[in-house]
Design a protein that fits this description.
The protein is mainly alpha-helical. It has one domain. The chain is built from 5 helices and 2 strands. Strands 1-2 form a two-stranded antiparallel sheet. Strand 1 and strand 2 form a beta hairpin. The termini are far apart.
């Protein structure tokens, strides 16, 4: 959700400009689609609602990010470039975190969203108490 809100607050046109530079077709539409998936998908994951439904678009979005942005920077998400005046300077992140997000979403798909989720468990639907 934080990634979607960051794009929304900076302005969807700013993100659309980045998408245009990357060669993404229909950048303004795709900016809004991306923001929507990140915000609504994050909320769905947080609440445990419609996890199986939203997982596909979220994983697709992460794969697009890997292949259009992060792949040239390698695997590691942390690249210490230098340290000056007691502050670390980092380079562009690799695709490590995106793979971690995909693994977490896959874990939710395979294991279910849990007993506190808003989506009823399949094994309890229609069972009398």
């Amino acid at each position: 959700m934080s990634h979607g809100f960051a794009k929304l607050f900076k302005g969807p046109d700013v993100f659309a400009g980045i998408l245009l530079t990357l060669g993404v077709p229909m950048p303004h539409l795709m900016a809004w689609v991306t923001i929507g998936i990140e915000i609504l998908g994050g909320l769905a994951i947080l609440l445990g609602a419609y996890v199986s439904f939203i997982s596909g678009p979220m994983i697709l979005l992460l794969l697009v990010a890997i292949f259009t942005v992060h792949l040239p920077y390698g695997f590691s998400s942390i690249k210490l470039m230098s340290a000056q005046a007691g502050r670390a300077q980092f380079g562009p992140p690799g695709y490590e975190c995106d793979l971690l997000y995909i693994a977490c979403i896959a874990g939710l798909i395979l294991g279910g969203s849990g007993p506190l989720s808003l989506t009823p468990r399949k094994d309890t639907v229609g069972v009398a108490e």
